[in-house]
Prior knowledge:
By secondary structure, the protein is an alpha/beta fold. The protein is 39% helix and 24% strand. It has helices at residues 14-28, 63-71, 73-77, 89-92, 97-101, 105-111, 132-140, 151-161, and strands at residues 3-9, 32-37, 49-57, 60-61, 81-87, 118-122, 124-125, 146-147. A hairpin with a 2-residue loop joins strand 3 (49-57) and strand 4. The site of flavin mononucleotide has 22 residues, from helix 1, strand 3, strand 5, strand 7 and helix 7.
Amino acid sequence: MSKVLVVYGTKSGCTAGIAEKIGETLRSGGMTVDVKPAEEKPNPAGYDAIVVGSGVRASNWHGSVKSWLSANADALKSVPTAFFTVGLTMAATPEKADAVRAYTDPLIAETGVTPVAIGLFAGSYESKKFSLPERLIMKAMKAEEGDFRDMDAVAAWTTETAPLLGLS
Ligand SMILES: Cc1cc2nc3c(=O)[nH]c(=O)nc-3n(C[C@H](O)[C@H](O)[C@H](O)COP(=O)(O)O)c2cc1C
């Protein structure tokens, strides 16, 4: 049975829900899956495939996930790895998907980890889960409040990506 590690970074909790949905979808396909926050610094050794993703602030993955990716780049280069990015651009202006996909270009260049796929998912903005400085930025940007996560889209991407990760 294939073993998969899903690693994520979140500040509001939004991306944790998406990571859990990826894990649940893989489990229902017969895989053994661990879903871990990057802060826990999970060891990628012994997994057949890795899925790593983050919510974003100003076009950037969270520092915890970037650090985890850099620290484990050598291991990730030898195991199929997929990325996913969660943000409000995919909710408000999904036609800007190419710009969201490009958020991880610097990480790919810096670490040499080449993902087999990059999932792009709409996130959420529930002001009570965000810090005051974040709320002020969101107010200035006139961001709409709501949970825009589409768990069916997350499950569909996971199912499509599993064969690219060598999972069947
Ligand atoms: C200060 C700030 C900056 C943000 N910048 C972006 C951005 O550049 N692109 C984007 O798609 N979403 C952006 N977002 C939206 C978040 O990525 C979105 O709310 C996401 O669901 C947060 O998930 P997380 O809390 O799990 O990281 C931003 C949110 C905040 C508060």
